[in-house]
Design brief:
By secondary structure, the chain is α/β, with parallel strands linked by helices. It contains 9 helices and 10 strands. Bound molecules: ligand 7PM.
Length: 275
């Protein structure tokens, strides 16, 4: 199986590592946009050195609980970073739910659109359909501001699967080939620890034919709940979670700590190759 990601054709034979690049104003300096851009680009290049297969650039508009960011602010943050990184050795994804930014990002060389609302917004499917980019369709219950207040499911695995299946059908109907599609259960997006663990242990049931499966668990609150640690001290927990995800059928893991994840996957792969 392959993922068509703009001009890149990625083999899904081995698990892929997507490195997270946040482009957010630095609260410790007033260096301004140029400093924020330079910092994000340097971080992204570091993640490539560490062995990332894909970069995911986000301007923070989709983060749970985060204040909404205007289109103008999001494009000011994301586009300069994207322009600096597109044309490099690995595909660059843009994490946005705004169709306007999707179009501009694709024109600037983005190879993937990562949308936590699964291209359900007005004009989102149209913004990506007639392009070669990959799309990540994520499940979320509720809205970022309130989704963790009372997550509720009768059967979380079944409901997430049915939702993703419906969004894949909508994408295919809009003209997006299955080899361009990635689905993601959206860990922490309107889910309790119990929901997240049910999804992680039954991940294989979320694999849809011909479609890649991506999982983002890196440094998330569920790992804080399990270990009692702050986000920056969740590296070991995140690596364990990424391994569990890959063992249970994930094709791509979205992580902050690329080097640590790569090493763990290298060892896991060596053991697996003995069969
Ligand atoms: C605070 C809480 C800040 C959570 C950032 C986050 C995912 C994503 C994010 C994911 C896909 C984070 C999240 N998570 N996109 N964007 N899948 N496809 O940990 O799980 O980065 S934001």
């Amino acid at each position: 199986m392959f993922l068509q990601c703009g001009k890149f054709r990625l083999s899904l034979e081995r698990p892929l590592v997507m490195g997270v690049v946040n482009v957010t104003p630095d609260s410790f300096s007033d260096g301004g946009l140029f400093a924020d851009t330079a910092r994000a680009v340097a971080h992204a290049r570091q993640l490539v050195e560490e062995g990332a297969d894909i970069l995911d650039i986000g301007g923070e508009s989709t983060r749970p609980g985060a204040a909404p960011v205007s289109l103008e602010e999001e494009r000011r943050r994301v586009l300069p970073v994207l322009e600096a990184l597109a044309g490099g050795k690995i595909p660059v994804s843009v994490d946005t739910r705004k169709p306007g930014l999707m179009r501009e990002a694709i024109a600037a060389g983005a190879a993937m659109v990562n949308d936590v609302t699964a291209l359900s917004g007005a004009g989102a499917l149209e913004a990506v359909a007639k392009t070669p980019v990959a799309v990540c369709l994520m499940h979320m219950q509720g809205e970022p501001g309130t989704m963790q207040s009372n997550p509720d499911y009768r059967d979380v695995v079944r409901e997430v699967r049915d939702y993703l299946d419906g969004r894949v059908s909508a994408a295919v109907a809009a003209g997006i080939a299955r080899e361009r599609i990635v689905v993601d259960p959206g860990f922490g997006f309107g889910k309790t620890l119990e929901h997240n663990l049910a999804l992680l242990s039954s991940l294989r049931e979320l694999r849809l034919p011909g479609v890649a499966l991506l999982v983002g668990l890196s440094r998330k609150a569920m790992l804080g709940k399990l270990t009692g640690r702050e986000p920056k001290d969740r590296v070991h927990a995140s690596v364990a979670a990424a391994l569990a995800a890959v063992q249970n059928g994930a094709h791509i893991v979205r992580v902050h700590d690329v080097a640590a994840t790569r090493d763990a996957l290298t060892v896991w792969q060596a053991v697996k190759n003995q069969n």
